[in-house]
Amino acid sequence: MLGLIDHGSAGNFHVENNCKKCLDEPYKIYFGLGQSVSLTQAPDVFKVSRAGIRLGNYLVQSLNPKNLNSSFLDIGTGSGVLALLMRKLGGNDITATDICEKSIAQAKINEHLNFKQPTISFFVSDLFDGLSEQRFQTIVFNPPGWRTPSRSLIQRLETRGRTGQLPIHSMFYGDEVISRFLNELPKYLNPTGVAIVGLNSLVGIRDILERYNQKYSNALPLTYKLIERHTLPLIHYSTHWKALEKHLKLEFEKWQALDLATYSTDKNGDIYWSYEIIEFSHHQK
Predict the structure, then answer these.
(1) HEC string of 104-143?
(2) Right CATH number for 27-282 from 3.40.50.150, 3.40.50.1380, 3.40.430.10, 3.30.420.10?
(3) For a disulfide at 261, which of 47, 240, 251, 255, Cβ 3.0-4.6 Å?
(4) What is the pLDDT of residues 72-98, one digit of tens each?
(5) Which of 85, 74, 13 is CA-nearest to residue 49?
(6) Judging by beta carbons within 10 Å of its beta carbon (0-12, 13-18, 19+), is residue 252 exposed, middle or buried?
């Protein structure tokens, strides 16, 4: 069971998404307080990463009955794991969105696997586009973790792309996605609500927040603070991205040289990055 043997360790437990042996096998993740979520795997939907487990752990630790009895929005739900976790904890007003129709279909399957009756509102949506302008008390977002790739890397990714593999936007273009999310967030967040966002240091956290500050001339519509930080090993998520490991490393090196990404490499050449859980909220008068 994930969330137990891997909890607190530095080993790489992640199974590649196209592992044929694993595709039809449900797996379970433990988050604490006796709560676990069962999931099925699909070849073009992310298996929950260690970062996703860390974010789920934080939700269990931090959300109180007031939060659980209020509106909850999970953006980029993927397998639906965080929305399902909120329902396990007693949430009864849960909305989950994803830009990928296959992810939403898989999330609905996973809700059926964990509960007898469906109650979560699932929508295909690019960030907030598919939603009416209602406000949510808690918004959770685990965005794509890597920056916009160079044209040469895009060509390599597209050349190696195959049916049933993860789409490029599922992990790249994170800097663009997060900037759009932050610009739209104030309209959808309750005045007393919080948005909990998990950011990968390979996306360029300093660059994103600096541009956010500059956009509003430091008169920010939202305030933010770092809640938790974890160092995690790089994984490649699919075999065809793994095959591009050399080119990915070159891309990461260019980003870091321009101060647009942060990571460390050990003596074996393995990359480690920082997973940072950041909380955004309205300024309180």
Answers:
(1) HHHHHHHHHHHCCCCCCEEEECCCCCCCCCCCEEEEEECC
(2) 3.40.50.150
(3) 255
(4) 999 999 999 999 999 999 999 999 999
(5) 13
(6) buried
> Which H helix or E strand runs over 282?
strand 271-282
Q: Residues 258, 252: contact at Cβ < 8 Å?
A: no
Q: Where are the domains of the chain?
A: 27-282
Which pTM does this prediction carry?
A: 0.90
Which residues, other chains included, contact 41 with Cβ-Cβ below 8 Å and sequence gap of 6+?
17, 22, 23, 24, 25, 26, 27, 47
Adjacent-strand bridge partners of 282: 222
Contacts for 78 with CB less than 8 Å, ≥ 6 apart: 45, 46, 48, 52, 98, 103, 106, 107, 142
Q: Is the pLDDT of residue 135 over 90?
A: yes
251-254: long-range contacts, CB 8 A cutoff, minimum separation 24: 251/149, 251/150, 251/153, 252/202, 254/150
3-state secondary structure of 153: helix
Helix axes 81-88, 101-114, angle to 10 degrees: 30
Rounded to the nearest 5 percent, the helix, strand and coil shares of the chain are 35, 25, 40
Quick one: pLDDT at residue 46?
Answer: 80
- Token readout for 174 is 């994170």
Written as one letter, the residue type at 191 is: P
Give tens-digit pLDDT for 255-284. Answer: 999 999 999 999 999 999 999 999 999 987
